[in-house]
Design brief:
- The chain has 14 helices and twelve strands.
- It has about 350 residues and is α/β, with parallel strands linked by helices.
- The strands form two sheets. An eight-stranded mixed sheet has the order 5-2-1-6-7-8-11-12, sandwiched between helices. Strands 4-3-10-9 form a four-stranded mixed sheet.
- Strand 9 and strand 10 form a beta hairpin.
- The longest helix is centred in the middle third of the chain and has 20 residues.
């Protein structure tokens, strides 16, 4: 089984780092290959690949055992392609896969958003499996990737094509849950990911931001808009962790002492965790906001419903992208804008 991680950023490198240290099958760098950008290539060559998590995982793979490439030729031997590129790069990635991968390769979309698997299926002849990664990974520099939240990787696998891959992931202490309806699961993750932009704009660690009731009240509005437009579109987001999506606005409105009680049993967040969108702003990269909060705005337009808070947050993120100055560290009230309500 040859695995290639295409778009090896924080999520891809973390999963690869866990696999490298999981047993003899991945002791050879030829079995697992990473394709990514120069910045991470240089860091891993200099420091190796280190993965840690909020539960105490601490594993380091020496640089000589990490096959990290800047070109795509290793796709030619891939049995499984773990696609971890940003949603806006999906079409470009599909062109690369079409050019290099063998017809029997299985492409696993481990991306944010809800439309990537559909895009890939329209462009590729290879089998495409929709997936979802619930946990957060922060790149701390020097080849060190830290997982700060919990959750099982989700995959659809109607034809049992991923049996060997799932076994490998579970041996690496990356538990997998198989679903028949990934659409509902992906929308459940989308609802959870709507906080990415709020976190990026706040500039705070996730735990601190969620511990601040003013930011939670912003999130309550973000989530209420989202759940309303999803309901209007006939979409019921699935529960992907311990929190039921439909209860999240109510949970976010709780006073701090009650929220802390609920969070202690349902939200396991490392004090260091931040959203990937925060990291994108820090590095001056384009974010996935169009595929997260922007998806809520799109569904609102489709169903003739206003989504003022999500729309304002999308605008703020785009302003921050353009400014290239990292997080703007905005207070909670700045995220609401000139809020309106109702529908047109």
């Amino acid at each position: 089984m040859n695995i290639v991680v295409l778009g090896a950023g924080s999520i891809g490198c973390y999963i690869a780092g866990c696999l490298f240290e999981s047993g003899p099958a991945f002791n050879s760098s030829n079995t697992l290959k990473l394709i990514g950008r120069q910045r991470l290539y240089d860091d891993i060559v200099a420091n190796g690949l280190k993965v840690t998590d909020w539960q105490g995982r601490n594993q380091v793979t020496d640089a000589e055992h990490v096959n990290f490439s800047l070109n795509n030729d290793s796709l030619a031997i891939a049995d499984f392609i773990l696609l971890c590129v940003k949603s806006q790069d999906t079409e470009q990635a599909s062109d690369i896969i079409k050019l290099w991968a063998k017809p029997s390769a299985v492409v696993i979309s481990l991306q944010n958003g809800v439309s990537n698997a559909q895009v890939l299926r329209q462009k590729l002849n290879q089998t495409v499996i929709a997936g979802m990664v619930p946990f957060n990974v922060l790149y701390k520099g020097h080849g060190h990737f830290h997982c700060g939240t919990e959750g099982n990787i989700a995959l659809e696998d109607p034809d049992n094509r991923c049996k060997d891959l799932i076994e490998a992931l579970e041996n690496a202490s990356l538990p997998v849950t198989v679903y028949n309806d990934m659409a509902a699961v992906q929308y459940g993750k989308l609802v959870m990911n709507l906080n990415n932009a709020v976190n990026a704009l706040s500039g705070m660690p996730l735990k601190s931001q969620l511990g601040d009731r003013q930011y939670r009240l912003v999130m309550a509005k973000v989530l209420s808009e989202a759940l309303s437009v999803l309901k209007a579109d006939g979409i019921t987001p699935a529960r992907t962790g311990k929190v039921i999506p439909q209860l999240m606005p109510t949970i976010m409105k709780l006073p701090n002492f009650l929220f802390n009680i609920v969070a202690a049993s349902t939200l396991k967040i490392d004090p260091e965790a931040r959203s990937s969108m925060y990291e994108d702003l820090l590095l001056g990269r384009r974010t996935e906001v169009d595929y997260l909060n922007g998806e809520i705005v799109r569904l609102g337009e489709k169903n003739k419903m206003l989504t003022p808070v999500n729309r304002h947050i999308v605008s703020l993120v785009k302003q921050s992208e353009h400014a290239q100055l990292g997080s703007p560290h905005l207070p909670a009230n700045a995220l609401l804008g000139q809020e309106t309500s109702g529908s047109t």
